[in-house]
Amino acid sequence: MTTRVAVITTASSARLAHLHRQRRFLREAQSETSAAGIDLLRIEVWLDDAAPQEVGNATVLHLPPGAHGMRVGAARNAAARHAIEAGADLLLFLDVDCLPGPDLLPLSTDAPRRRPDDLLAGPVTYLASVQRPNALADLPALTRPHPARPDPAPGALAHAAPTDYALFWSLSFAVTPRVWERIGGFDEAYEGYGAEDTDFAFRARERGVALTWVGGAHAYHQWHPSGTPPWRHLDDILRNGRIFAERWGTWPMEGWLEAFAAAGAIERDGDGWRRAS
Fold first, then answer.
1. Which residue stretches of the chain are H helix?
2. Where does this protein have coiled-coil stretches (predicted)?
3. pLDDT at 35
4. How many Å apart are CA 84 and CA 31, to the nearest integer?
């Protein structure tokens, strides 16, 4: 039995080196799982103003930025529509910064056979700046999943409690087309940085979709410079956080907001936040 897996990545020229490595690792992963009945369909959605100058062995879509920045949620929705029309059995979303672990494809393909109605997420390791793996075989020794997220034993499926949906990250996750349609995809009101993935998880919870952590389905986030807190995304975080709060009654990214407030950049505005006056 062959399973057609659409691997969906949103990309930009700023992450081209990371994308090249991801492509190479996916080719290696595909060759190692060819006997497992996995038919891989690569879909890359480019988020820059200009269309990409070069592409890999993938279907390429182009979704320019909106008024407030890159439209990650809308890009994922467009890719999912294309994948479903192309007959995909599984939608596997992999952030452009992430490398697939040796078992990501087989375990992500097996999990929906056991939990076909769930939103499936795997553990993610953040690589250090000096860690530049060259092959799949390099990755297991680097495995160090983020301590704030579940890390079940390989092959185990751990079900999230209703209060744990805020832990969902869109760095690496999978759904069947039926579950995707049930959740309704990403809310395209979010542009720029932040909140669209937590909103997606809360939409799943609202629609009765269980969140399940897939043990051993590791992804590895490649290092890149980032601010702590992410100052260049301050206005995005305020705008998207406000949209989120209006819908769900609570603000996301609380750690960042508290850091901005401690630095005097933002202040309380009733139940919300605004730039300090």
1. 16-32, 72-85, 104-114, 177-183, 196-206, 234-248, 254-262
2. none
3. 59
4. 23
How far apart are the C-alpha atoms of 204 and 209, rounded to whole Å? 5
Closest CA to 194 of 163, 248, 162, 230: 230
Q: How far apart are CA 266 and CA 248, in angstroms?
A: 21
Q: Say how far apart CA 193 and CA 3 lie, in whole Å.
A: 33
Amino acid at 170: S
d(CA 125, CA 127): 6
- Work out the burial of residue 167: count CB atoms within 10 Å of its CB; fewer than 13 is exposed, 13-18 middle, 19 or more buried: middle
Q: In whole angstroms, what is the distance from residue 199 CA to residue 264 CA?
A: 27
Confidence band of 226 (pLDDT split at 50, 70, 90): confident
Q: Rounded to an integer, what distance in angstroms lies between the CA atom of residue 221 and that of residue 126?
A: 5
Number of other CB atoms surrounding residue 207 within 10 Å: 12
12 CB-contact burial (10 Å; exposed 0-12 / middle 13-18 / buried 19+)? middle
